[in-house]
Amino acid sequence: MSQPPVVTRFAPSPTGYLHIGGARTALFNWLFARGRGGKFLLRIEDTDRARSTPAATAAILKGLTWLGLDWDGEPISQFARAPRHAEVAHAMLATGHAYKCFASQDEIAEFRETARAEGRSTLYQSPWRDADPVDYPDAPFVLRLKAPRDGATVIHDQVQGDVTWANDQLDDMVLLRSDGTPTYMLAVVVDDHDMGVTHVIRGDDHLANAARQMQIYHAMGWDIPVFAHIPLIHGPDGKKLSKRHGALGVEEYQAMGYPAAAMRNYLARLGWSHGDDEFFTDAQAQQWFGFDGIGKSPARFDFKKLDHVSGQHIAAMSEAELLAEVLIYAAATAGPALTPAQIDGLTRAMPALQPGCKTLKNLMEKAYFVLGSRPFTPDEAAAKALDAPAQAILAELTPQLQNASWTRESLEAIVASVAETHGVKMGKLAQPLRAALAGRTVSPSVFDMMIVIGREETIARLNDTQG
Asked: Residues 247, 249, 255, 260: is their CA dihedral positive or negative?
């Protein structure tokens, strides 16, 4: 009998941005489905109407799109499916797997206080569980799952192994509130079943939910998906990831200049491994990804490792690919649109800009010498390099460049000769030369810049500093 096609899903709550943990969960689901020719679906769990916002939904979709995690079909709204959730709850009521509970909040609170005082379990046990319908009052009620009291519920988890809960430790959870709205626990199961989800890959903070959700599957006689609960991400100090560690929205990483391919690579390695491979393509990740590579311990987020992976991806791109990434980055950071002249400058400068860059932001900083325009106002560090002695040396160098053969070897020889005449090392002359050509101390080599901008522009910039 053939296996059904793989269907995974990512189901974020639209109450804020797409954070890095959610992005990693989406990536794992995407890799698993795409590597097996399956479907990756998106569901927006917007049942919390007080906290769910269209802006947050838009931010999540934008974040996934930038990351390159394409989903199949239209995103599904959980809130819009409330009638279907209620239908399932009533089906369980009709088969005796659910019951009406008329207990008030005060009665439930009183039960728990008494149980606590007597040292008993505070799990609520409703007196309405086996009540005769003829005794029902004309009052508001909730629908509760009639959970098994004996035995155990076992989750055969692909990451955590078999996890067992004694059924007497699981309460009769509410399926429908007194206003008829479904609870999250019910909605998740109904949606996953109706969407044909075969594998539920999510954070291990949902592991306890799985035991209770399993009971709904059993009550409805539905096939149970394969569960894989992945450890959460921690900061470098081993504590739960927070904003101070880098638990930012995905768009923040785009603004910091990390290419999407580098983020996919790095996030895949947060909690999953394939031997010692650190750098890999999407095709490799999709081919390799499986549950056996996921560890049980929390992964640690590390900006140094992210920088290293990002630098590898930038180095591996063709110049055309890198230019396209830079243009996307420039547009996303809301700066003024690059002019045709600036794009032409970037294109010509790319061989000098690409080596050693960790981020696209870093590359743009190095590219200032072709993105800026005369006269270049030196920043504070560059201004210090352009002191009076340095300007005197540059004044001597400038006329010698007028008739130089405009090759790297010739330019290096002229600069070395002037430096020797003044008894300084080449590096001592390179700093003021860099400051004059770029107005910055961060740039490619001075000779790369001179070749890219040409003789006329080089001499004009040197003359500007001697005005």
From this structure: positive
